[in-house]
Batch of 2 targets.
Target 1
Amino acid sequence: MKQFYDLADCGTEEVGRLLATARRLQAHPDPHALEGKVLSLLFLSPSLRTLASFQAGMARLGGATFVISPDMSIHGLETRPGIVMDGTAAEHIREAVPVIASYGDAIGIRAFAERRDIDADIADTEYKGLGDLCETPLINMESAINHPCQSLADWKTMDDLNIPAQGGKFVLSWAYHPKALPLAVPSATVHMAAMRGMDVTVLRPDGFELPEPIMEKARQAATEAGGSVRETSDRNEALAGAHVIYAKSWSSTRHYGDRMGDQKLRTGLEDWCIDDPWFESADPECRFMHCLPVRRGVVVSDRVLDGPRSVVIQEAQNRMYAQMAVLYHMMGSGE
Ligand code: CP
């Protein structure tokens, strides 16, 4: 595997192989598999789980990691193209990426969306430009529009819990948040659930529709896998019979890049906080999922997050096993 950028690039068979490796490495540790290998980690955006799970996963396979982020005492990092560097930044990303990549056998890069131009973010222009700066195998640790490591872990979590694929009802619900957040997780999640063959409903208030190219990509995956994808603002209709309610907040697509417009639209939507009544018409075994970090009492109530429906800790732990599988197939002997 030369790149792990998008679950869609893998196809169902390769996802199956990755999940099988993740399960095997969880049950039977292989502490020498990546001995002598180094994973470079470049974080241009903040993290807890991604940072810790890649470091822990690589260590469990016998390899090593190093982390570079602008918060560290590195030279100020300039990312703008074509800039005259007469300010505080002393290093440009165009040199930094190939240098960092040259020290490792694979590189993970995280760079969130700029959220100025929706077409550029959907095309992942900035992230792809970073990847083009080196030839080292690349792992997408979250870009403007994708988070494949989260999606692979979420797929494994649903398999572990025997949540049905064919016939399984997956609701990706927008949730209130005081800030406009990126589209990466909702875009990756709707596609992942569709690729798994589930019947997917995107539940969101008007103005927070997912972009049409994202929905179309998910619809194509659903067609291939035997599932379906639709979008609604009707909470009662969406939640009936749900096997999973996956909460996430995201920017208004109607006011993308317009902070004031987005803020105005989300004002009054504070009741989009997942709470017990949301599960009344759902399947009795319905689970609550979220990628974390999550704002308690804003996105979800304490009683749901702390209750038996919540599988957020399993999702976070599966990040490590899912990524170990990716690392194994990218840098190890493969299977
Ligand atoms: N879910 C996720 O990617 O978490 P972090 O932002 O903490 O890495």
Target 2
Amino acid sequence: MTEDFDVKLVESDVRYTPGPEYKADSWLGDYETAYQAFLADPDGFWDRIARELDWIRPWDAVKEWKYPYARWFVNAKLNITANCLDRHVKNHRRNKVALLWQGEEGAERIYTYQKLLSEVSRFANGLRKIGVKKGDRVCIYMPMVPEQIIAMLACARIGAIHSVVFAGFGVTALNLRIREAEAKVVITADISIRRGKAIPLITTVQESILNAPSVEHLIIYRRRKEPPVEIRADFEKDFYGLMEGMPSECKPEVMDAEDPLFMLYTSGSTGTPKGIVHTSAGYMVGTYYTTKFVFDLKENDIYWCTADPGWITGHSYIVYGPLAVGATVFVTEMTPDYPDPGIWWKLIEEQKINVFYTAPTAIRMFMKMGEEWPDRYDLHSLRIIGSVGEPLNPEAFVWYHHAIGKDRCPIVDTWWQTETGMHMITTMVGEPMRPGFAGKAVPGVIADVVDKEGNSVPPGTGGFLAIKAPWPAMFRTVYKNDERYRKYWETIDGVYAAGDLAVKGRDGYIMVLGRADDIIIVAGHNIGTAEVESALVSHSAVAEAAVIGKPDPVKGNSIKAFVILRVGNKPGDKLMQDLIYHVRMTLGPIAVPHEIEFVDKLPKTRSGKIMRRVLKAKELGMDPGDISTLEE
Ligand code: WT7
């Protein structure tokens, strides 16, 4: 991210303006007015929001900013689960549905706020019983079942730091994340069910903990009844066995505002993923506020976010944000195209979903399948539809707005990151939308597009996406790598450099173009080129590998690998299949290259760094740009 980025935007004037009732009925009201009120008194703005929540002890100051370190709600004491659960049980939401879960075989499970509180408390007591204490790390590797959410909340109840690993990761990736975090407990399930098939998780986990000496217990949620998987050893525990006989009340741990709540690994530009650390108070306030205001959630809404809780989207907008607000959250493990590409629209009709949040990769897949699928169902319950994970291109925006939103629903295209914890840029409900543009900073956030010196670029110009002031849900560090944390704030002087390229439109709307670094976003999942390369190189036939992202009409990007073989190995289909299988087993199915090309040489700088930019330009038939550092 050192070269300036030269892009001039030819702007279209297309705007989609939602009906006036949207703004009139919204929590926010007028965007400009709200934004100016925030700018006039930033601390007062967040203070007012935080007061809507329950605290054990109030704060002495809203924030303390010692660049690049922030503390929010200084010296306050709280427990986020007391806000996500007890606050509603105490008030008027005790019998309200918190989680509405639907499994693949049509099975439905319903948790009211009271029931969820009792289950979380029992599991939390179980964790305490086996010795889990405040500050201990717990790794959660589970499919999208209610137990996954219960496990997360139970950790938060007792102050244990959860590290959720998406169940699509393989042995090496999981093992690395368990070892890096020194997890004391791993929570998993025997199987995940996808497209009518049971996919075993347990073997992956059992292998992953073999050389992870920190792990004292493995807790297994056994879904398969006939026959149930065996609990093999003393350190293995059955999920419900652990809850048996446990009281359904559990005193929440008193957490300082800055005590860590969770960590979540995200791909970086090195082979080692970054453990992004979020703390208690700021994260709670930031996700509560954005869930309520960006989705404009109302008391009787049924809300569905299609992400997996294993990603930050699930943490912030399935679990903590919506439950802090007291919403009814629909969760399902159903994939978008099984048993057919109408399933999600069928669920929206059946469950009368009001607010729907999904990813561009899914939208583009549906677009390809045609409007006849959504047209078979009645989608009139939808009020607001959202998008996250990568740029929502204008064609996909137009299709989503028409085929799903019926030319009526506002689209909130939300730009944010694992690091930001909460929505940062979007078009707030009621404001005119511009296809291709995410929008503007949400009130509470100061965002801009800057050059490499940190100067704001003029309208119509490209640059780096930057955040210019601290925000409550910002990450506080990278686990055991604070230097990496500081780098985010030191790459461009004085601002948080998000690592994205963006263009600012005439009226301040921001268009996000994509990553500026060696991270590829495939179907909304961040994949580090370095992680895939090291997986390939760990195969005995591979001497060297370089990985690039190639534009893909549905997935956004696909992975192409260039591989140099060790002497004595012959390129061919069999070896290609071997390599694909190898990456699948080590990193997991989400990181498997779509294409492998065997080569004799890779373009490198004189200092030996692979120039992926040159490979990519060649692959796409484009000008490679400045190649003065390329070795002969
Ligand atoms: C990267 C962060 C935030 C939850 C999901 C991904 C890209 C995310 C958008 C959007 C354009 C987007 C960015 C960002 N991204 N949302 N609305 N428009 N790009 O979280 O895995 O931390 O990835 O996703 O490139 O930097 P993440």
